[in-house]
Amino acid sequence: MNRLDKYRGIIPAFYACYDDNGRISPDRVKALASHLAGKGVKGLYVGGSSGECIYQSVDERKMVLECVMEAVRGRLTIIAHVACNNTQDSMELARHAQEQGVDAIAAIPPIYFHLPPFAIAKYWNDISSAAPDTDFIIYNIPQLAGVALDTALLKEMRKNPRVIGVKNSSMPVQDIQMFLDEGGENMIVFNGPDEQLLSGLAAGASGGIGGTYAVMPELYMRIYELFGKGEIEKARVIQNDCCRIIYHMCSAKANLYAVLKEILKGRGIDIGTVRSPLPGLEAEDYKIAAACAEEISAAVKKYCEKAG
């Protein structure tokens, strides 16, 4: 078995779980982690964009990871996003993640100041040095970070033997092929944009890490399964329906994660709402969330339940 096989498959990005007063809820973190494990996903990506990491303290992020590990340790592949906007805190989270026994850590580049490539490489390598026995995954999300990974920077990072892959959330599918070409053997790339999972798999992605996976994991796992069987047309039909559902979600005034959490609530998993300054649901958004939940249920019934 290839040591990278544990990263192949569908890995939902884990949502921030708050109590009714907006504090991290350990019980709700564990409930969501257990719920997703029960769905049969490959792993969880903890502490990233979907986890509202930039609005949480270092201690809160440690608490979330500890609760996830308590709930699903040994059952799922766990990737902990540890980047903060300073090196010291990022290294602290990396040390903590290794102590918790995660499979990999991940990091975006520092945001706000546009650093030169050599400074970004030093930032990532410093983080990796704090977890020297743990795999490292570069998180490329230029539309939010303001900095894009290129092949020259990836080549520099591959000098670090712990760097095993990229979570690629840039929109061009071509980037996946370019990163795999540059990375060489023992290199993986995750597809990031949920709307193009199938395209990313076709370009060589080992699987996907996505923000809407947690509300409809069955559909994404089915796409992954059908792709593996070479049944591309069937997979394409499901991918298109996933895209339509996402577009409907994004029609709400609220932040997307507020909509996703409301959908989960309708499925019996209450993890609160989003943290300010992210906008929560307005009156008309509840109807959108309910309609999206119905669309998901219908799609799961149509594409997954018949498949057994």
From TrEMBL:
One of its GO terms (biological process) is N-acetylneuraminate catabolic process. Keywords: Lyase. The active site is at residues 139, 167. It holds the Pfam family DHDPS. Gene3D superfamilies: Aldolase class I. One of its GO terms (cellular component) is cytosol. One of its GO terms (molecular function) is N-acetylneuraminate lyase activity. Pyruvate binds at residue 209. InterPro entries: Aldolase_TIM (IPR013785), DapA-like (IPR002220). It comes from the Bacteria. SUPFAM superfamilies: Aldolase. Belongs to the DapA family. This is Dihydrodipicolinate synthase family protein. It comes from Candidatus Mediterraneibacter pullicola.
